[in-house]
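Posting this for the archive.
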Amino acid sequence: MKQAPKTLPSKRLPSKKTLPYAIIADVVLVLVFALSGRSSHHESLDVGGILTTAWPFVAALLAGWVASRNWRSPVRVWPNGVCIWVITVMGGMILRVVSGGTAATAFVIVATVVLGVFLLGHRALAALVLRRAARS
């Protein structure tokens, strides 16, 4: 008896809304991280100051997107989100120090926790919403 050929699982591409949502959310949340840090230390909240604080982390975030090929599954927590989170923190700290900034232990801990909550949290919520929408 002849069996039907097995089909390979189709690659699901992200919806047209998921990809822009993920990149915009990531960048905005990194900017919010920089803004909140500057605010808590009573530093200037002008655009230049915020961008000076944020640029190392935004650059590392974009490197994380490339390294994880996040455009394929932009709201996936594992491994994409975790990869982006780790690269954003580590790369951001390296770029910050290389460009003359500091990376005190307390700052590294706070940045790791806050960026983890931000970058993984929004992905987990988006994945939950997409899962529920697919069921209905």
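The radius of gyration is 18 Å. The first helix runs from residue 18 to 40.
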